[in-house]
Amino acid sequence: MSRMNIRISGLGGQGAVTAAHLLAMAANNDKKFSISNPFFGAEKRGAPAESYCRIGSERIYDRGELVFPDVIMVFHPQVITMQKSYTAPFYSGVKENGLVIINTSADLLSDEDHKILEDLNVAVLNHDATKLALEVGKTELSTNMAMIGACMGVTNIVSLKAMEVALQDRFGKKYVASGGTATLDEAIKKKYAKKEQLLKANMDTIIKGHEIGKEWAKTKDLQLVEV
Amino acid sequence: MNKQVDLKNKRIIASNHVALGTKNKKGQTYSDINDIFYNSEQTPNFLTGSEVIREAVKRASVGTSVAYPITPQSEAAALIGELYAEGYVDEYFRGESEFAVMGQCAGAAFGGHRVMTTTAGPGTLRAMENFPMWAGSRLPIEVVVTCRGINSPLSIQPDTLEMYYLLETGMMVWHAETAQDLYDFILKGFIVAEQPDVHIPIAVCCDGFFVTHTKDTVDLSPVEKCLTPYDPYKAPVPCMDMETVPIRMMRDPFVMKSNYISYATHASWQQEVKAAMERSRKHTIPLLDGLIDEENTDREILIIGSGTAVSQSREAIRLLEEEGVKVGLIKIKTIRPFPTEEIREATKNAKHIFVPEFNVAGWLAREVKAILPNNERVYVGPHVAGGMTMPSEVIVEQIKKHLGMKTVPMVAR
């Protein structure tokens, strides 16, 4: 039985929930077992929002807040700098040999944080996902794609092909979501003349993030869980 | 009349509705529940619980659905609206509040429609007066309750306290563990609720977010097959309005008074609702394959749960197994009627019984304690409340602690 637990901490509107759903959908396409769920309050854009994705070799029952993650993705620096996360510190509960991917251009961790994570053999990737999203996707709304890509590149948890199918499922068809999500879906669709362009821009961002993650992983002696 | 059929050694009530085998305006074939679930290929889909509610309603030949938004059922209610726009639901509109919605549901059910709605948490409590009214009026309405916190401080996360309030409404109360259960229970719930010898409302409950907003694999029956419509002529009582016997609410003054006749009326009627609930067992058992599921109940340590507490327990049992602690599991599918005999039998050999719950009251532990001999065996907990997650590690820790085993506190990890 193997399982990878992924915890995503971000701000409302960044697509943390969509990211977890996409990873789970892709894992499902790859014939792995997966389950994803969001965790947030009755809040709005900019408030803390978390999502969780569990991927495994056997049927997964576990759901709800992910207390002991293997992988933590931080979608926004404020998760760390302003404590906009549901756990303090944001890496609380991280498992040995785990991985932390932070969307940042600068090191946001204190010496103490580094020490704790090093003792647990947790690798930290500072990944400027918003910059990548602006460069490739031409919108910061693609930040989640840049993060997913990096996670995939480092962990190989799902294949690019499976992710492309998941993207098609999520953005290619009619999708009914709650008010806020529907508004953001509309916003990002308006940025592109055609749906195909939106899908391509997202996939390109994922592929670029994937390359960055893969290259970085080569420089590290990672002992991550494999599913 | 319904007839019983033999299928895979099960006895399941089959439909002989006049529309059976014909097509509806969407081209779906009105089918028997056996045909839908047991004689058709079930296809795996990766969906959220809200989408699963849509898929079930799409196949349920619903006459009327009334909506009012409240997290976490808003998406499901909106998706049912989509079905109305597509022509799968005959009537759909938005009520002014949950109280209004449930009253409007009653009206539509009195009028002879198959009626379903969805609500959650504070909405369930706001609507509460209507639930015993539905039961007393013998309206087989289905309400999907996506449980969330009801108390202040506010929470939109899953908490099953509202189910406690539903226990004595006279409604059947089923509790889905997964999106798969939710799909099955929604469709099968109509069948049981509408039996002439049952004919009472049903609350199909699930834990909000952990089921509604969670993407999971669900086997769906073919979309080309839908339930046969509700047949109002199978109602065991006449439409109970102000004018019609047996209970002319306002016309017959005795009902409203505190005298022997009013007592007798109420006592007999309320007992009849309870008896109808009892009669639902024989229909539910074949359809749900029993009121409980058992796994290794010969073991000395057992967990009894319902809803996603069962899912978390499954993970906890796996973790305990790795440490050599063997634990059995009883999953309760129907809270009303309560599987009293089944649980007594399954717990015969148990020395320690744990009841993990997502609410502060521990109502399931009370229910279990009330029916078991030697109920000091029952450990009330672990509990979480207010929408907290119950990590499987917490269940493991509490079980080990109670058994006097060494534990590593959660905070030290």
In short:
With 227 residues, chain A is an alpha/beta fold.
Describe it.
The complex is a heterodimer of chains A (227) and B (413). With 227 residues, chain A is α/β, with parallel strands linked by helices. Chain A has a single domain, classed as Pyruvate-ferredoxin Oxidoreductase, domain 3, CATH 3.40.920.10. In chain A, 43% of the residues lie in helices and 17% in strands. Chain A has eight helices and six strands. Chain A has helices at 16-29, 78-81, 111-119, 129-137, 143-155, 160-171, 179-190, 195-218; strands at 3-11, 33-39, 48-56, 71-74, 99-103, 123-127. Chain A has a six-stranded mixed sheet with strand order 2-3-1-4-5-6. In chain A, β2 (33-39) and β3 (48-56) form a beta hairpin. The mean pLDDT of chain A is 92. Chain B is an alpha/beta fold. Helices cover 37% and strands 19% of the residues of chain B. Chain B has helices spanning 33-38, 49-58, 74-86, 98-110, 121-126, 130-136, 161-166, 179-193, 253-256, 260-288, 308-322, 340-346, 363-371, 392-402, and strands at 3-7, 10-14, 29-31, 43-48, 64-67, 91-94, 115-119, 142-147, 172-175, 202-207, 215-220, 225-227, 292-295, 301-305, 327-332, 334-336, 352-354, 378-379. A seven-stranded mixed sheet of chain B has the order 6-5-7-8-10-9-16, sandwiched between helices. Chain B has a five-stranded mixed sheet with strand order 13-15-14-17-18, sandwiched between helices. The interface between A and B is medium-sized, with 25 and 36 residues.
CATH architecture name of chain A: 3-Layer(aba) Sandwich
CATH class of the largest domain in chain B: Alpha Beta
How many distinct domains of chain A? 1
Would you tell me which CATH topology of chain A applies? Pyruvate-ferredoxin Oxidoreductase, domain 3
CATH superfamily of chain A: Pyruvate-ferredoxin oxidoreductase, PFOR, domain III
Strand content of chain A: 15-25%
Oligomeric assembly: heterodimer
Structurally, the number of domains of chain B stands at: 2
The top-level CATH class of chain A is Alpha Beta
Strand order of the largest sheet of chain B: 6-5-7-8-10-9-16
| Arithmetic mean of pLDDT of chain B | 92
Approximate strand percentage of chain B? 15-25%
Q: What does the radius of gyration of chain B come to?
A: 21 Å
Strand order of the largest sheet of chain A: 2-3-1-4-5-6
